Structures are given as C-alpha cells and as structure tokens.
C-alpha cells in the first residue's frame, strides 16, 4: 500500500518507520527546507522509549539519552533544596528507564532509520482530496502525489487537521488556547554548580521555573518558564535579556545557568499553546497524529511520547484490521483520542498549578515539595505512562 505522510517530525518519522517495516511503500513530505527541530530537547518517558524499542531503535536511543537518576526541587530565590529523590522507581514500575534526549539527535536518528531518500523537504501541502479510492496531496509548487492513505503529522497548525475536521470548507477551524506562559530553552555544558550531572533539577518561585536535565554529550537541556501575555515582542538580538529580567535575582545556581547560555548557539523562545481535546482524527483515507491531533503544553513531558503512541497504534491497526483503510483508521482513532485528550488536560492542569495563576494553589504546591519523599510525584509520572497502548497492545475497542 502506498502511504504519504505529511510532516517529518517525531510522529511522522516514527510512523513512517513502523509502516515501512510492515511492508508499505511510504514517502514523507515536509515544508521545512532543512532539518531544524523546534526546541532543544524533549523528555522520553518510559512509554515513548518503549515505542522506540519496538521500532528496533532501543540501543541507539539509550546512547542518546541522558543518565537521569534523581529529581530535585530547589527554592528559586534562596537555592534551598526542597526535596530530592531517586527516579529508579519509575523504571522499576514501568519496566523501562526514561531518557531526556536532544531533539535534533533523535530527529536525525529517526530520519536515518526511515531512509533519507524517501524524505522530501521544501514541499508544502496546500490541498488534500480523497475520491474514495485514492488520496491526492497537492503542493505549493504545483506538484502532486497520490496514495492509498495520507497521514497528517504536520504539527500544531495542521492543514491536514483542517481537512479532517471539515475546517477547509465551512467548519470553524479548531483554535489553539494560550497556556499563559513563554518557555525559553536550549543546551549548555553540564555544570555541578547548577545541578548534578545525573539529576533533573528544578528551581521554583514566583510562579516561574528554571530547570535542567542531562542529555548525551555532557550537556544540560535547560528551560525557563515565564508567565506573561501572548504576543510580546521578541527579537533574537534580545538574547537572554528577558531571562535576566525575570530571574536575575534568583539563586546562584540559576545565575550560573544564565551566564552559561550562548544565545547564538542555543536559545529558543516558544509561547506555549494547546488545543482542547477533540475526537475527529480521520476522514475517509486521511488521518492525523502528533501535535496535529493533540497539541499539548509540555508540563507533564508527554507530547513526544503521545506522538510515538499514535505511531504504534496506527501501525497496529493497519496491521491487524483488513476490512478497509477507512475502517482501520477509524479504529486507530477510537484507540487514541480519549487517552491523548486526557494527557492534554493533565498537562493543562499541571501548568495551572505551577505557574501562579492562582497564587494560593501554587503556594500550596511549593509547600508540598518541602521534604517530599517523591512517592506522590512518581505516582503521577507513572500514572501518565500506565495507560499507554504500548503496555497492553491496542487496548479494548
């Protein structure tokens, strides 16, 4: 079967690998002209790693992953350690160690594993049509390609989502919601004055966060969350100035991190938006996955993992159901929409708690961190993983 995938991100390439290994003829198109992933790194929790293991990439992913043995929270202003605990229970309870990974490294691995000759960059889809037998993708340069089915993994501003939900015609497009904060992120060299090399370290105060987690190559992935209105002006020339303004009075470890950032080498600024869960992911021979289907805030670290779960469920459905392409895609939709939507809402709730929108709620969270043994936090992390389809096959339809 010929399959076109729109989008060469984590979801698109992982789906492509799975579908190729099932014997399908798969080609990926992406509007980007070169591989420049958005965001410096990502959290691969156990569910996401298991999908990559299933794809045969376990050893390569483990080599890219940072050794994250502990988790700690510190008071952002004083630097006082509020709590510290082992993350080993996550691996013990789920059967797989999680890994933070540099996004560019993982993206390059997935693109190589899929096959670079079958990835076509600089190709923007502008129209999709489906006559019941063949799906046609039309590109901005006037070229077309046809397939037995088309998968839209084309991100938060997905044209495929508009087609699937009818918004390309008369329906109102599904709108994104601003989460209330801006995230700055990048990569720096590990520095023990910021945090131990094997630890996820998070400084919290004033509804803001500054954090580091280890990735391969003696590097920290860092991020800062700044609650602020959407649409504030920012230019590359501003560099770390907004961070110094927001965090310049924080603890020495945070100052050390700020001084280590090279804005020209690695500093991204992203306004955080999400999409209310919805349950229309397919239309005929077209389906969506990843951010196109469940754009989420990063507050529980499940965005990439959820896209990987989509790839697993899609491949399993196409491999096990034979009535029709349309039927297989509908069964994929039924497998995924409820769980993916629940993770979006959990991330939204977590973001509301941590970013000071209700000061009393955030103050209570800070207090709960003081001398915490980590049991409750690990329960939450594992709870996000336990419902994954990778743990129980495709689940009950």
TrEMBL record:
Residues 2-344 form the FAD-binding domain. One of its GO terms (biological process) is purine nucleobase metabolic process. It is an enzyme of class 1 (oxidoreductase). The keyword Oxidoreductase applies. Pathway: Purine metabolism; urate degradation. Coiled coil: none annotated. InterPro entries: FAD-bd (IPR002938), FAD-dep_Monooxygenase_BioMet (IPR050493), FAD/NAD-bd_sf (IPR036188), HpxO (IPR047712). Keywords: FAD, Flavoprotein, Monooxygenase, Oxidoreductase, Purine metabolism. GO terms for molecular function: FAD binding; FAD-dependent urate hydroxylase activity; urate oxidase activity. The keyword Oxidoreductase applies. Its cofactor is FAD. It catalyses: urate + NADH + O2 + H(+) = 5-hydroxyisourate + NAD(+) + H2O. Its EC number is 1.14.13.113. Belongs to the FAD-dependent urate hydroxylase family. PANTHER family: GERANYLGERANYL DIPHOSPHATE REDUCTASE, MONOOXYGENASE. This is FAD-dependent urate hydroxylase. The gene is hpxO.
């Amino acid at each position: 079967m010929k399959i076109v995938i729109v989008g060469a991100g984590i979801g698109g390439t992982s789906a492509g690998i799975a579908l190729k290994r099932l014997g399908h003829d798969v080609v990926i198109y992406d509007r980007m002209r070169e591989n420049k992933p958005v965001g410096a790194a990502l959290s691969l929790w156990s569910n996401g790693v298991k999908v990559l293991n299933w794809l045969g990439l376990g050893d390569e992913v483990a080599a890219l992953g940072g050794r994250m043995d502990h988790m700690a929270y510190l008071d952002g202003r004083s630097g006082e350690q509020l709590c510290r605990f082992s993350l080993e229970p996550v691996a013990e309870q789920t059967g797989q160690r999680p890994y933070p990974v540099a996004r560019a490294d993982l993206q390059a691995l997935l693109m190589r594993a899929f096959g670079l000759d079958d990835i076509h960059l600089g190709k923007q889809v502008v129209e999709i049509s489906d006559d019941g037998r063949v799906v046609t993708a039309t590109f901005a340069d006037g070229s077309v390609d046809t397939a037995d089915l088309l998968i839209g993994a084309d991100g938060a501003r997905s044209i495929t989502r508009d087609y699937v939900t009818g918004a390309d015609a008369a329906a109102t497009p599904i709108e994104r919601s601003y989460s209330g904060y801006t995230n700055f992120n990048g990569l720096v060299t590990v520095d023990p004055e910021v945090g131990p090399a094997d630890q996820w370290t998070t400084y919290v105060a004033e509804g803001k966060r500054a954090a580091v987690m280890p990735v391969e190559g003696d590097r920290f992935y860092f991020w800062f969350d700044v609650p602020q209105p959407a649409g504030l002006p920012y230019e590359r020339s501003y560099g770390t100035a907004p961070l110094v303004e927001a965090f310049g009075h924080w603890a020495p470890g945070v100052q050390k991190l700020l001084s280590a950032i090279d804005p020209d080498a690695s500093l991204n600024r992203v306004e955080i938006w999400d999409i209310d869960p919805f349950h229309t992911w397919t239309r005929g021979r077209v389906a969506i996955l990843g951010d196109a289907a469940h754009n989420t805030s990063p507050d529980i670290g499940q965005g990439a993992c959820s896209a990987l779960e989509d790839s697993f469920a899609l491949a399993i459905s196409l491999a096990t159901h034979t009535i029709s392409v349309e039927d297989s895609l509908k069964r994929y939709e039924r497998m995924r929409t409820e769980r993916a939507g629940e993770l979006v809402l959990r991330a939204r709730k977590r973001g509301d708690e941590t970013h000071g929108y209700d000061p009393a709620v955030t103050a209570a969270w800070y207090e709960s961190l003081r001398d915490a043994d980590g049991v409750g936090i690990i329960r939450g992390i594992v709870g996000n993983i336990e419902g994954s389809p990778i743990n129980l096959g495709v689940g009950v339809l």
